[in-house]
Amino acid sequence: MSHTRAVNAEPGRRYDAIIVGAGFSGLYQLHMLRDRLGLDVRLLEAGDGVGGTWYWNRYPGARCDSESYYYCYTFSDELQDQWQWSERYPDHNEIRRYLNHVADRLELRPNIQLGTRVTQATYDDLKNSWLVSTGNGQRFEAQFLVTAVGCLSTANVPSIPGLETFAGEHYHTGRWPDNGVVFEGKRVGLIGTGSTGIQAAPVIAEQAGKLTVFQRTANYSVPARNGPVDQSFRDWATTNREAIRAKSRSSVNGHPFDVSDRSALEVSDEEREQAYQAAWERGGLRFRATFKDLLTDEAANETASQFIREKIHNIVKDPATAEKLTPRDHLYATKRPPIDTHYFETFNRDNVELVDIKATPIVEIVPEGIRTSDAFIPLDVIVFATGFDALTGPLLALNIEGRGGLQLKDAWAHGPRTYLGLQSPGFPNLFTITGPGSPSVLTNMPIAIEQHVEWITRCIAEMRNRGATRIEPTPTAAEKWVQHVNETAQATLLPMASSSWYLGANVPGKPRVFMPYAGGMARYEKICGEVAGKGYEGFLIS
Ligand code: N01
User: Fold this and answer.
1) Architecture of domain 155-216+352-387
2) Is any atom of ligand 1 closer than 6 Å to the C-beta of 33?
3) The architecture CATH gives domain 7-51+93-154+390-541
């Protein structure tokens, strides 16, 4: 928290809304509240540029794992006509350029204040206002507070003894320096083998003198099959724009493709193998859609898991390394599945070594490198690809205090309590875009974001029409929703992966609660629509 004495940014000015964060969510929310509803809005952003996740995640290999033709805003034909993606999976530079383009085209910059980290937000009951303090000592007041802080923005750097003594450089992938990191000739240690580590390892290996990958949990990964987008594909995507959008919104996970209607267990062994092989060759997250029951039936999933395990053994030449890389403690896609470009192949390089830190844990970091229980690995650079305090972390970091001094961290001490992932009891006029309890990280994010922003915009518009000034969910509605979120998760295999960040398992001391809504994007959107259609059932509006 800032110790600078807060000063009013513009004394006497009360904004209609403060938005926190200038990524996909914040930019669209600003556009909708300002240009659709005519509200007086300020957007506060900690970074020195727009981009959100894509502002911070510039690590080597950072690129999207949803495909570019649907990882974008879909609300404006004009915006879509103005932008051409160059690759099947755009890299961080291209996505940042896209979001800057959007900020310019929609003329959003006058309402955006960069380099401004929100350190506290307190609800004042008498004024029905949110009082927002920032790290640079400013203070803002607004009727509505909308968080657009992302789900994966609070870096999780493990507290390994001795880190502060390390004589080389160390970086977390989610806080990558603007001007990059030079790896040439250096001995690099990469800790973490989630989506990030799996994207970074092959690129770092090409540059570094030696790369040592420290793996705690072996992971499944399917080839991305990235490549340039050609004009005929672009033309197809333009012609089918409406259908792609509709399909994304009516799907389980916000991706515009069908999940097979066949069970993995109802086909012959040959058919199953062919289906997985075709999906492997096509590449990408669509592998999950090869059969309808991969996320609901253990035996069905085991066939996909085993297919990938065999691929790992086929790709990695050294059998002992292949076995270390083979996940056997959880099923495919029960943790967030990565996709890769030559990840497993990287372990065939002479300058790459794998250390299984479940078998031989890291004991300490010393000035010259990392000491495990059975070896010392000298290092010049340590890269932490150790993930994030997901979903709740970015919200709790805002130090939010609601009605009657209720702290969000206390209200959520046993796990997030939200209604629809949009609001929490005790925190009037606070909206959380892609908050815990919404589909968020289980979907193609721009689709989830558009749905949330549009719901919030409509809600505020209707409040204004009614002359209402305050909205908050009832505790009963939130209890029921938390229960529903839990039930939908239990109907899948997702809670089975005990080391999953979906459950908060990667952060020591975090409550083990399945946080995103696993009931599917289409079902969720329908529920949100019905709640609004019934006069915002479950909310108290006054
Ligand atoms: O983080 P992760 P991530 N000691 O939490 C290990 C999105 N994303 O940054 O599995 C040693 O998945 C940890 O081990 P374990 C995507 O949603 C998207 O990779 O907890 N190791 C794991 O191996 C993704 O899921 C894209 O046992 C430690 C790794 O670090 C999410 O971001 C690209 C450790 C962390 O994996 C997060 O991915 C990248 C410790 N103390 C990311 N603590 C796109 O393409 C953790 N680990 C869009």
Assistant:
1) 3-Layer(bba) Sandwich (3.50)
2) no
3) 3-Layer(bba) Sandwich (3.50)
Q: Which residues pair with 371 in a beta bridge?
A: 364, 376
Contact 419, 477 (CB under 8 A): yes
Cα–Cα distance list, 436 to 272, 409, 432 (Å)? 35, 14, 8
Instruction: For residue 438, report the distance from its CA to the centre of ligand 1, in Å.
Output: 20
CB atoms within 10 A of CB 297: 17
| Contacts of 475 by beta carbon, 8 Å cutoff, 6+ apart | 425
- Closest Cα to atom 34 of ligand 1: 386
DSSP per residue over 309-323, as a string? HHHHHHH-SSHHHHH
Q: Mean pLDDT in runs of 10 for the chain (542 residues)?
A: 67 96 98 98 98 98 97 97 97 98 98 98 98 97 98 97 98 97 98 98 98 98 98 97 94 93 98 98 98 98 98 98 98 98 99 98 98 98 98 98 98 98 98 98 97 98 98 98 98 97 96 97 97 98 97
Q: pLDDT at position 2, please?
A: 40
Cα–Cα distance between 52 and 434 in angstroms, integer?
Answer: 14
Q: How far is the CA of 192 from the centre of ligand 1 (A)?
A: 6
Query: Could you give the CA distance from residue 142 to residue 429 in angstroms, rounded to a whole number?
Result: 10
Q: Give, using CA atoms, the residue closest to atom 24 of ligand 1.
A: 195
Neighbours of 292 (CB within 10 A): 18
User: Domain extents for the chain?
Assistant: 7-51+93-154+390-541, 155-216+352-387
Residue 208, SS3 per DSSP: strand
Q: Ligand 1 within 6 A of 65 CB?
A: yes
What is the 3-state composition of the chain as percent helix, strand, coil, each rounded to the nearest 5? Answer: 35, 20, 45
- Tally of CA atoms within 13 A in the half-sphere of 299 that contains its CB: 4
- Tell me, what's the pLDDT at 5? 66
Please list, residue by residue across 484-512, b when 16 or more beta carbons sit within 10 angstroms of its beta carbon and e when fewer do: ebbebbeebbbbebeebbbbbebbeebee
Q: Whose CA is nearest to atom 6 of ligand 1?
A: 192
User: DSSP state, 422?
Assistant: T
Match 């994030």 to its residue by tokens: 388
Residue at token pair 């932490």: 384
* Model pLDDT, residue 1: 39
**C-beta of 196 in contact with ligand 1 (< 6 A):** yes
pTM above 0.90, yes or no: yes
Domains 7-51+93-154+390-541 and 155-216+352-387 share a fold: yes
Residues 6+ apart with CB under 8 A from 240: none
> Among 253, 386, 391, 507, which residue has the most ligand 1 atoms within 8 Å of its CB, making it the best to mutate?
386
Beta bridge pairs of residue 87: 228
Q: How many helices (H) and strands (E) does the chain have?
A: 16, 21
Which among 73, 67, 80, 92 has a CA at the least distance from the CA of 228? Answer: 67
